[in-house]
Design goal:
The protein is α/β, with parallel strands linked by helices. Helix content is 34%, strand content 21%. The protein contains six helices and seven strands.
């Protein structure tokens, strides 16, 4: 659940760059999963593993770039297994401090791993995408609350007992 908003946001940004399929591990969509774009298919895993699903979809080649936005050892290992030779893994999720993966596969595939945390200068471009309507943020907003209820909203988000994605605080 912690990575859900990052997954939705990353998928939305990817959908703005072109017609790229977005694969998500899991079965039934949560109430907060929204269509990323009318032109971008969201594919659910049908193979026994996520990496297998990616390899089936790419005819065994793997993806050029994998965004690992969950931060669990098994999802990072899946990203390594699903990325083609010479490809890049962008590590965004960091729920767990360590991830084990097949080092020989990593080296033999000549993969590049880069980390991404917060913003490295693209904030203005993101604001422009929202302002232009290319990214519709309405489906991401679970509630709008007065600013005076901010502390309570953060407590509810952190507790994770409710299916809250984003809570907007208004003055």
């Amino acid at each position: 659940r912690l990575g859900a908003d990052v997954t939705v946001n990353a998928g939305t940004l990817v959908s703005c760059t072109g017609k790229m399929p977005v694969l998500r591990k899991g079965g039934t969509p949560s109430p907060h999963e929204t269509p990323l774009s009318h032109e971008t298919p969201v594919l659910r895993e049908t193979a026994s593993t996520l990496a297998e699903a990616v390899l089936d979809l790419t005819e065994g080649r793997g993806v050029h770039t994998a965004f690992e936005v969950v931060g669990l050892p098994e999802t990072f290992a899946a990203a390594v297994a699903a990325t083609r030779t010479g490809g890049t893994i962008v590590a965004v999720g960091n729920i767990q401090p360590r991830a084990e993966f097949d080092l020989q596969q990593f080296i033999a595939s000549e993969l590049t791993v880069t980390g991404s945390y917060a913003s490295s200068g693209e904030f203005e471009q993101c604001i422009d995408l929202v302002a232009s309507g290319r990214i519709d943020v309405e489906p991401l907003i679970s509630e709008v609350r007065p600013l005076r209820e901010g502390a309570e909203a953060f407590e509810r988000l952190l507790a994770g007992r409710e299916r809250l994605l984003k809570v907007v605080l208004e003055p």
